[in-house]
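job 3f2a | input accepted
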Amino acid sequence: MVSIIWDKLEKTDIISLMITHIYKKGSVTPNLNLGQHFIQNNKFLEKMVSILDKNSLVIEVGPGMGQLTTFLAKKVKKVIAIEIDKRFQKYLLPISKKFKNVEFIFADVLSSTFDSVIVQNKKRFNSIFIVSNLPYHITEPFITKLAFLNLPAILMVGKKFGYQSQITNPNDEHFTELSYICKSFFDIHKISDVPKSAFWPIPKTDSVILKLDPKRKRTDIDYIGQKIILSQKHGGLVKNVLMNTIIELEATHNSIITKNLARDIVNRLKLNNDILNKSFSQLNNTEVKILSSSINKAKLTK
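job 3f2a | predicted structure (302 res):
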């Protein structure tokens, strides 16, 4: 029965009634605690898929009922979709039977499963993309995880995050920790606005589709930001990361400086000890803004 429904779904552009029908008949109620708002407009799915390389591997996060998955399966070489909610198995598994290039993993994408999938496939594919109609509640931790992976992504996200992710000026009142992560690691391009009416159930806010490309031309300021953010995994204090990174940057400019001189340069930033003696993950948004602004204005190399 599920396979028949999907065959019908592929033959029509009017999918909103079909999605509602499937959920009602299948007794599956979207879990709003998991941010389950499902896209029901083909136009936006096509926009997400259109810029993908046909020879690439796509790792889809949160396929839900598989609306986006079917579009991906027709465009790219391989799709691995990771879904936390096992209630959707009866809708997703028929897709993997129909499309032999689709594989589903039922796990939490924020766990080590996600990382291991990438490690296992990096040697097999020259191009790997992360694609997702991203559940709102995991946006922050997922973007942080994405920064560690150095992979491009096409994400449908809430309008507020879409705006914050593109702010590069730390003096902007809306600049946040996520803004700093995005400006340090990614070049971000907006593909499309998505009205909330394109989802079921209808969320409280509109969305946007973004393309996140890992920075290819990285400035010294970008590099410092990346080091501070990456160091949080090991609890590195901001002051120590700054000193060590300044020494590294001097080496790339064919100059050698001592730790004492690096410490003097850090002292010129005039950052208070509350910032210097924390790891990045412990900073609040106000402290992140101060840190980013100080680094932008300072001369951190000789």
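job 3f2a | The longest strand covers residues 186-194.
job 3f2a | closed
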